[in-house]
Design goal:
By secondary structure, the chain is of the alpha+beta class. The protein has four domains: 1-157, Beta Polymerase, domain 2 (2-Layer Sandwich), CATH 3.30.460.10; 161-253, no CATH class; 285-365, no CATH class; 368-403, no CATH class. The protein has 20 helices and eleven strands. The strands form three sheets. The chain has a seven-stranded mixed sheet with strand order 3-4-5-2-1-8-9. The longest helix has 17 residues, at 219-235. The radius of gyration is 27 Å and the shape is elongated. The termini are far apart.
């Protein structure tokens, strides 16, 4: 079964280099190929090629290096502890990304924690995946299609079926990935899988007493949730994906308030317009955004932005008429509030909207009608007096602006 656009020479070289190791193409490439060839879905383009080999991945990569011309190699990154090697090859004038992994089995001693992984066989590797439609493999040696979990049946029904009864308990990020697939492929979560998700979420999100301190989910889970959400927001049709995740009850993974939030669409649309990170805009709707930012381990800059916005929110008056234009500028430009914090206030619907929007679009760019060089030429010496005069002239100019 040929992959559209993938050089036959690459597939043949991989099969040849496998020798006595079983090598299979797995994941999205097989799923999308079946959707295209069997169910007449439009071809979505060649994704990165995920390969699983019985035995050590690095041994296969070493043989592949000898089989391909030196000009084909761009990079090879060996993640030794995970048994995977990331390759970038140049073939036929195109760049190809390959992820070659040793077949692994995994166990979850603590729900939500990173799994314990050991070498296994191809069947073990397929059993550790998220949904049946991603647990189909194409054996590159024999050409056999391996489908031990009836993924083709679920492709035909256009549904997402979790692989086992503890899938969400072991790794709740599977729900976020499921929402991505649902939005991209137009699939639904199969009823028993939806019931599993909802029953698991009934005791979620951070109330499981695993880890330290009690009542907190494992820190590694927060990191994985952030990474999955970033992929959803950056690469997928995020409106549809977040709608699906909320319908499933999956926003409970983040915060109960977000699960009932009806303003996230507006926030994210405005965030895209004003250049605010979409995940920050989503987190801003939480009942207590800063602890959620800590659980997700947001980058320091994003965490600081949320803190600045919360301080600004406390300082903003409820009525725009309480302040003049110069006073508004003094408020929005002082107390460590940067332009990004004002942008987040606009995104979140914080305070009187009109003065915030006027400041963002116009007032912040207005300067003294006389530049410093002109005032110095008129005899004013550089120093505090010059700064005070520039401030007075700017305030005078702002005073003529309409609120």
């Amino acid at each position: 079964m040929d992959l559209p656009g993938v050089p036959t020479s690459l597939i043949n070289a991989l099969a040849l280099c496998a020798h006595d190791q079983r090598l299979a193409l797995v994941g999205g490439a097989v799923r999308d190929l079946l959707l295209h060839r069997v169910h007449n879905d439009p071809w979505r383009g060649v994704p990165d090629l995920d390969l699983v080999v019985d035995g050590q991945a690095r041994d296969l990569v070493a043989r592949l290096r000898r089989a391909l011309p030196a000009s084909a190699w761009r990079s090879a990154l060996d993640h030794g502890s995970y048994g995977t090697v990331e390759l970038e090859l140049m073939l036929g004038g195109e760049s190809w990304l390959l992820d070659v992994a040793s077949a692994r089995r995994e166990t979850y001693p603590v729900p939500g924690e990173n799994p314990q992984v050991s070498l296994g066989e191809l069947a073990d590797d397929l059993a550790r995946r998220d949904f049946t439609i991603n647990a189909i493999a194409l054996d590159l040696g024999s050409g056999e299609l391996l489908d031990p979990h009836r993924g083709q049946h679920d492709l035909q029904r256009r549904q997402l079926r979790l692989l086992h009864d503890a899938s969400v308990r072991d790794d709740p990020t599977r729900l976020v990935r499921g929402a991505r697939y649902a939005a991209r492929l137009g699939f639904d979560l199969e009823p028993a899988s939806l019931q599993q998700a909802r029953s698991t979420l009934a005791s979620w999100p951070w109330g499981w007493s695993f880890g330290d301190p009690p009542g907190q989910a494992p820190a590694a889970l927060g990191t994985r949730l952030r990474m999955e959400l970033n992929v959803l927001l950056e690469r997928e049709p995020w409106r549809q994906a977040l709608e699906v995740l909320q319908q499933w009850g999956g926003l409970l993974l983040l915060d109960p308030q977000l699960q009932v939030d009806r303003q996230w669409r507006r926030r994210l649309v405005w965030a895209a317009r004003l250049g605010v990170p979409l995940l920050v805009a989503l987190v801003a709707g939480a009942s207590d955004p800063l602890p959620l930012a800590e659980r997700l381990q947001l980058p320091h800059r994003q965490h600081r932005l949320l803190a600045q916005w919360l301080r600004l929110r406390e300082a903003l008056p409820s009525c725009a008429r309480q302040l003049s234009v110069p006073d508004w500028c003094m408020l929005l430009e002082g107390h460590g509030h940067g332009p990004d914090a004002v942008a987040l206030a606009l995104v979140a619907g914080t305070g009187p909207r009109r003065p915030l929007l006027r400041w963002w679009l116009r007032w912040r760019r207005l300067r003294s009608p006389q530049p410093a060089q002109q005032l110095i030429a008129q005899g004013l010496q550089p120093g505090p007096a010059l700064g005070a005069e520039l401030h007075r002239l700017r305030a005078q100019r702002l005073g003529s602006e309409r609120l």
